[in-house]
Each structure stands twice: as structure tokens, then as C-alpha cells.
Amino acid sequence: xxxxxxxxxxxxxxxxxxxxxxxxxxxxxxxxxxxxxxxxxxxxxxxxxxxxxxxxxxxxxxxxxxxxxxxxxxxxxxxxxxxxxxxxxxxxxxxxxxxxxxxxxxxxxxxxxxxxxxxxxxxxxxxxxxxxxxxxxxxxxxxxxxxxxxxxxxxxxxxxxxxxxxxxxxxxxxxxxxxxxxxxxxxxxxxxxxxxxxxxxxxxxxxxxxxxxxxxxxxxxxxxxxxxxxxxxxxxxxxxxxxxxxxxxxxxxxxxxxxxxxxxxxxxxxxxxxxxxxxxxxxxxxxxxxxxxxxxxxxxxxxxxxxxxxxxxxxxxxxxxxxxxxxxxxxxxxxxxxxxxxxxxxxxxxxxxxxxxxxxxxxxxxxxxxxxxxxxxxxxxxxxxxxxxxxxxxxxxxxxxxxxxxxxxxxxxxxxxxxxxxxxxxxxxxxxxxxxxxxxxxxxxxxxxxxxxxxxxxxxxxxxxxxxxxxxxxxxxxxxxxxxxxxxxxxxxxxxxxxxxxxxxxxxxxxxxxxxxxxxxxxxxxxxxxxxxxxxxxxxxxxxxxxxxxxxxxxxxxxxxxxxxxxxxxxxxxxxxxxxxxxxxxxxxxxxxxxxxxxxxxxxxxxxxxx
Length: 611
Prior knowledge:
Elements: E1 2-6, H1 7-11, E2 15-17, H2 29-42, H3 47-50, E3 57-64, E4 71-76, H4 78-94, E5 105-107, H5 113-124, H6 130-140, H7 146-162, H8 176-185, E6 187-193, H9 196-207, H10 215-230, H11 234-253, H12 266-276, H13 298-307, H14 312-343, H15 346-353, H16 355-368, H17 376-392, H18 399-412, H19 420-431, H20 443-453, H21 455-460, H22 468-478, H23 483-491, E7 496-500, H24 520-531, E8 540-544, H25 545-551, H26 560-565, H27 569-575, H28 584-604
Parallel strand pairs: 2-4, 2-5, 3-6
Antiparallel strand pairs: 1-6, 3-4, 7-8
């Protein structure tokens, strides 16, 4: 069934569709630059060069279609064909008589058809600044998918390469015909199948033996393989898995502007799904799989689960349920959570506070009800905060108990039930009616006590705590900041950083001391006062990595532009008066006390939600 052909022999007689259950276009600069370098390596070879064994190889393709038809779905190879197609579109734009791209009859995933047509129309139109038009397309398309963005970026990269952009391979317009000849005559291997189940099986065999696939794609192939082997009706039941993954991939591509996902890759979402839900009936082991990939990753977890099934029907049902429940989890993350967050921003806040625990909690909770009702989300946030304050202050007993008790919270959200049982359990833990950990007793009282006992820690050592950012975020919201602005400016791209308002590496001259040796006594007094509180919460502010890098060595007043840009209302209000170096220590202490008062009054003693 497998044949060796040139690329031209493969694409010219047939039409190709990329099915929605395959990932949409995902190549970036890392793959595109080697593609261009390959073309440059082969375009000017002489006949003698072409006689050796180093012919340009443009990949392996697995196709599925009906007998006698010239229409095929691309099971494997769509990234290469799509890239060639985009490259040829650019060639046509730069050389008007270049019509080769029209010999490729390619239909992308359904949700990118309109976007690809827009790109084609822009490139086919003459005149105007093409890069400007493409940039405007990126800026103005509100419903763009991430794959559509990557297609535009690929086109821009090819155009830049032809324009002589220094960091890119140098492509020349007058050599376009030679580049196309390389593509047309490139060697390929192709395998065509007329059975969906067989094609998916070959894909699994071909791609889990050394060829890089994402963990999600490997799990998809593993599920289809097990259905193929064990089902009495493999085509129909494999189609159920394919339909589920079509929905998963489409939601992934359309989630580019959903800040709540942050840096969560689809592989990590799969890991959290398997921890929280798996095939829909999970009731234990909420910490497994431990990683997105590897020996303790999602693929190995699902593989082991399949091996433990007792009969063929159980295997088939498990495989289908994993796929369909994963699609449901994606719907919760991409659609339901953002909608609920617009009604109550604590939904998003708990993801900022503790992403791993809150994703498991929310994936289960949204299957059983609405966690913004009956104070559940308020209780979950406050419970996590109390836990973190106690843990940070070193008051803990038997770390394993924490894991098991959080597991009991997840378990209390039972499949198909409402959320009352979980709500009551959190309340009992908080009030000490049920011990979360042996020495904790009344969770609320212990939090309050330790907050006061460890006051110096907040004032002197808050910089090293990974939850400090969350308290600074809540402090800003309490004082009139717009949470959406802070999220978009700081949290969306996971570039959050903690800025020292009075920089740890501030220069003596910034402290008003031009000559240290002549003013040593004065300098040491000022610096000793500052360093005693320099890592305290009062000297810390939300920032981003780039802003922190550029602002870090300046005086506090030089940070104000960044603070204003990030929407940090209270920080701007306070820091604009930090002008005299001899007052820096006292200003830091004032801000520390202001933040501590807020935490005490509005967070720790938020007893109304527990009544």
C-alpha cells in the first residue's frame, strides 16, 4: 500500500481535507526556517549532485479515502502540505505568473477555512503594503484561532525571508521557479487506506516510534488503536473518539484570548483532566498522572488503565469515555469557566492562587453544579488562603495528610450529585468540626493566630513566597483596581514578576549620597534601615519580567509608569510619595502595615462566608 512518489505526483491528481480531529496548523519559526534552508540547499544542485542518495525528502503521508475516489483525508502529513501551500501562496504574490499553488486542492480544518480564504485574497490582491495588511488582519480579527494566527505568521516569515531579513534564510524572487522545482520533485512516501480504523492504526504505529507527537496526540492514537483492536464496530466507535478530539482541538485553537488558560498546554490540560475526571467516574488517586508526559505522564497512565480492563467492551467504553469526557473538560475550561468568571471573578482568582488544585476542583465542580452558588467558590478561595498562610508559617504536621485531605475534598464532589457535600466538608474543616490536619484544630483560628505570630515574616521576608503576588493582586482590587486589566497586563502571558519598589541594587547616588567614603556613617544608617524591610511585602509590587528588568535599578518614582500601565491603583497612589531616601524604610513599613491590615480584615477574618 505504501508508495514512493514525488510531491507533485501526490498532490496534483487529488484533493485533500484536513479532518477536524487532527490538530490544526501548528508550525512556527522553529520548523519554518529549516524548511526554507532545505529548499536553499537543494535548489541549485547540479545533475551530478542529484545522482547521490541525498535527494530532498518531503516526508511521509498517510491518507484515508474511499476506493476509486480522488478525495482524501490527511491522517498524517498535514503540517508539511499546509506549509508548502502557504509558501507557494507567497511565491504567487511575489511572482504573478507562479500558479503552482492552484495544483494543491487543500481544505483546512473547518474552523480555519474562512481564515485561509482571507489570507489567499490578501496575497492575490495587488498593491499596498502586504505586511501592514497582514498585521492589521492579526489585530482586527476578533474570532481568530491560534492556528489562523500561525498561518499569518508563517506567511509574514516567508515574505520577510524574500525581503532579506537578516535573521532569516535569504530567499530570492528571481529563483522562485527553482524553489518550486525542488518542491515538485521532492521525494515522498505515501500510504493510502480506505478504512478509517486501519488508517488510524497505521498512524499510531507510525507516530509512537520515535516521531515527535504531543502527549495528547499519542493518547488519541492509543484510544483509537484499542477501539480498533477490541470493537465489533470499529469505524463507528473510532468516529466517536475522532468527533470528541475534533471538538477538543477546535476549542484549543479558539481559546487564544482566554487568559484563564495562561501557559497551560493541551498536554497539561489532559493531565489535569485525567487527575480530576478520567473517564467520568474517578473517585480516587487525584494526583495521578503526575506529569504531562514521560514515565508518569498521561500516555503511560491511560495505557496502564487500558491494560487493567477485563474485557473488550470495557476497553472500548473506557476509550470512548476518556475522549468524550476530555472534550467536556475542555468545554468547562474554555467556555463555562470564563462565563462564570464574568459573573464572579473569584472563579479566575482561585486559578491564580493555586492553578493545579483549583483546576481539579473546578473540573469536578462544574460537572455537578455551579460553584459560584451557595458561597462555595468563596469558601474554596478562603480555605486555600488559610492553608497557604498556615503552611508558609511552618505550622504543619505530616505533609501526606495535606494530600489525602485535599483528595477528600475532591472526592466529596460526587459524579451526578450537587455541591452541598463539598460545601459542608469545607465548612467543617474551617470550623474545626473535622480535622484537616492533626494539629490544625480550628482552621480559621489557627490562621489568625499564625498571622500575628509571624508578623516579622510579612515585614521582612515576603519576597520568597510564591503566594505573595496573589495578596498584592487582591490588595489592588480591594482599593479600586480593575481586576481584568491586571490579569490581561500581568497574568495573561504568565510573565508575572515581583518588583522591589526600592531596588536591592539601588546606587548610593540615588540615595542622595554622591561619595560613599565621605558619607559612610550616614549611608550605612540609611541602607541598614532599608535592607531590614527591603524584602518585606510593603516593598513589593506586581510586575512583569520585562518591566522588572528595565525598572529594577531605578528610584521608586521611575517605576510609576509601569505600575500605571498595569493598573495598580493603590501602588501608584502610595509610591508617588516615595521621594526622600531617608524616608524609604518608613514608607515601606507603612505600606506593609496597610497590606497586612487588608489581609487581616478582608481575607483572614472573612467569617461571614462560613456562617
